[in-house]
């Protein structure tokens, strides 16, 4: 019975997948990876030995890295625990997929980078942040299919998505010279539309929602708020984690902070406004209040000002709540897109908004606004390559991202439809007991 | 029925309040705010362009800021989830009020600062920390009225409290030249007594406590411990977030760390001692163990030594537990002050203790103890302005703070008594279902 | 009845223990402790006054310290909340014991250090980290006896364990010149085997496990995941918190990060493989996924490469899961060692593995691999003291650690067996209600 193709048995599938993937990763790391120069220190790689310790990249970026790390494992993991009987899977599969993706991302991103620079793949705190960013995109897609997939299916999705993410990121940042430090396009737009296409292909027409398993209970909503708040608090670190040192990193964090604050007020306003009794909906608070961070993922390092940031944040919150109220039901009933966490509202639309805001803000990339700092933010802008050309590249980048995400998502969706992954049946969806030992003698039946 | 003046309907009230406030904030930010010089970088504001990136204020303060941010949103938010049926409101309204208050505080604090310096309001990591500090004070007052107010009422309170907080802070720090880096006076004493006066004016004689809603259940107490521990761990960052660089910041964190450790042992000791069966009370552990941080809010940057810090922490824990056991019931029965979270015990009395400790410690502000560092900690102390004068200013500052908090709280209390905010009736207090969509099919009735 | 020797009454015992210990600590701090030179600043201790603020040790280590602090209080505390009726005690006694241990550790570690250097005990961010490390070891032992001891018993254990830990640490690091920055030996091996011996001596033959209290419920497992994830995310900070500045700290964090990622995949693989239905077990995920951090506690600062780190992490995860499945039942049934949290699997075996990996990696401590950085990592290695001698010292250190832990644990176990601590009876084990006021009107009986 272990060899059944349709059952959910994981005793061989999951160990084989995990061990095979990890062994391949270890071999590739052994062959292709070496320490970055300020990781190996005086071991021969360093050309300039007069650097002081405090100039080591570690001190500029490690606190930001840890904030991003918390967003990936606690933020995404707990945000998805809102489902009443799917807490183990939400936080546990988030953990597994993230631990895998960050290793693969290091290799794929590093490989593409070495195409430009030659040599081995260098790792250090910057590669750690970039790998976590790619992982974030995979977890966004995970949110779209949450509750309807097996862990092996998710690992398989991660393999393909990490590769496609890295290719798209390479095209945007290295070939098109787009700016996207916080990943409005590369992370959020890509992850959301990729995931939406996967869940479209995996559409389950008979997924009975009347059994209420696809909803929250009281305590699970409070667990989810742990995820929300960590994402909200640390989003300034996320957007600024990989920007240039000094005033740019400072400015990026500051702009994001204002965008999120304005977004929160907008979220509460529209959540109450759209409810007949004027009651707030936890789903909106948990998700839409974060849209301000997504929507500033491209522009936060630019001179958008707190004023501009707050306008963007306010719009993002409104769009996101409206999405949960009107667009998610439409997607499900008309387009057959079952978006468990509503990633279209938190990452999809706000990601596109962020790309547009980034393109528009690029138009103001002049000496007047940036002074000598212009080259730091926009290294390509010269008299031959004006701000309008940069804005055009930003717009093209959005189109490329959507194209790769949509087409890639459909193809990977069909790969994931193969009956070999031990996916749950419709009645087993949103149910921890399928893949986990669950001990719930009496409380279990009571909480339903 | 939406226009009823006494019902709790929020469909128009909350959106109008949130949108109006946010639009006003955005306009004022557009008019009056600009980036600080190490946020805008080389964009014309910088006078000295030879600074290295690692000298940017961001690297000195951003990790501390993030710790403070976690205290505000996770710490205060989860600390208040101890109520059995008020978790959504505790963490959710904490989120709303904080996101609003930090924006308004930036403007009001910045406006008062520009009175001294002229020009526009400058924002950067220092303004972010100061705004979070002011927000903390508002959340302390929120703790006093928790469960008995509507979100619009809380936003209204925040408007007034942010202004009064900033005026008091300006008087203390800029006019009286008091030292209060961790806010024993400006944040804790002010927030506690302001909130106690508000809840006094909003006194509900018939608030039935026999229904037990104003108490905890098993899981809600564990959620609250998340808040407690984050506040406890990060209090050294809180007290040191805005002190001068280098040894002063180092010393402030260290002193606070020892005070909290001693306070914890004192809390456990007195909690067991005051219970007939010698059993520990979660309310004490969740709150009193933090009093050591409050009580060192003024003196932590001074040469109080670990020895002195531990004595203060030990006393603060004892006072706080005794307050929960004897003073809170007295306040409620005799003075008609219904203090939901016991902020008088965690912030009120320990805040006053902290102010007194700060004044006494200032008396030892001599060259003998501080060496050349004296001017850094006490810039006003000279041969004409001896340490005793500084101590006098510290004592006057406590009196001013209590005066503004008590009078301000009474006035704002009466403003909040107007029947326009959709406040809950007595039977609706401590109940999430009034303002939130709550899905609790069966478990709901079981957990009561 | 308060004076009964066998009852669990804490009304006098706990206050007397806490107050007496804290008063002794305060007196000793007053007599023997002073600020480190970059804490007191210009107050006369400083020899070189030209240092810039950013060179203050605070900025190199405080973010790491805060990560370690979170691991101690949230990480260990919540990891142990998996027990269904022991959440208050897990997180609450963890809090008490940690707050006590870090104070005592500062004194004992500082005293041993002054034997080498003379003068008073100096405190600063480095002493804070070292004290938290010692505390971690005590909390590991706490995990072995969790649910079967009184708080006074735990405080007593902490007194002895802090002293023995510090003596062992002193022998290893100062006398044997071993390297063990992340404490594979000093923290994990020591804490685990010490705790296992204590629980062996305290063996309860009639501890009825059929009542299921020694297991989890649904929500308690999700609470425990908070602890797991914070430990997992911040382990790179733990291992690197006290290493030398610059590339070494950078490398240590990076190696640990890869070890943990590989360990996670290994944990999921073996957890599914060892279950008849292929279902994952939360106990494995919560614990074994962390073994990769333990196993790199010695070698992470060395040139082990990401490749080597991942192999070690993979092995550690496998060993740990196998331990939970096969060795823990064996220890309990054959050796009468009741290891509540399975610390043998998370800290014991992975700690020994880490010590061995450290010894082997030391063999490659050559100029070829380390360049000029060799002396920074291995200050003792010269032509007279080759890498093989260093490896020998590492191996001897493991033997010394095991010896002190095993003998010390047995002796302390017998001390803790005295009938004076108010230990719970067998039927009271794993039960919060013995030492805490618990309000659980109906939900209590339902969740069993």
What is the element layout, followed by pairings?
3 copies of one chain form a homotrimer.
Chain A: H1 13-32, E1 33-35, H2 37-40, H3 57-79, H4 87-117, E2 121-123, H5 125-145, H6 151-175, H7 184-201, H8 218-240, H9 247-273, H10 282-288, H11 291-294, H12 305-334, H13 343-362, H14 367-370, H15 374-377, H16 387-416, H17 443-446
Parallel strand pairs in A: 1-2
Provide a descriptive summary of the structure in words:
The structure is a homotrimer of 448-residue chains. Chain A has 448 residues and is mainly alpha-helical. Chain A contains 17 helices and two strands. Chain A has helices at 13-32, 37-40, 57-79, 87-117, 125-145, 151-175, 184-201, 218-240, 247-273, 282-288, 291-294, 305-334, 343-362, 367-370, 374-377, 387-416, 443-446, and strands spanning 33-35, 121-123. A two-stranded parallel sheet of chain A has the order 1-2. In chain A, helix 13 runs antiparallel to helix 16 (387-416). The longest helix of chain A is centred in the N-terminal third of the chain and has 31 residues, at 87-117. The two termini of chain A are 30 Å apart. At the A-C interface, helix 1, strand 1, helix 2, helix 3 and helix 4 of A face helix 3, helix 8, helix 9 and helix 12 of C.
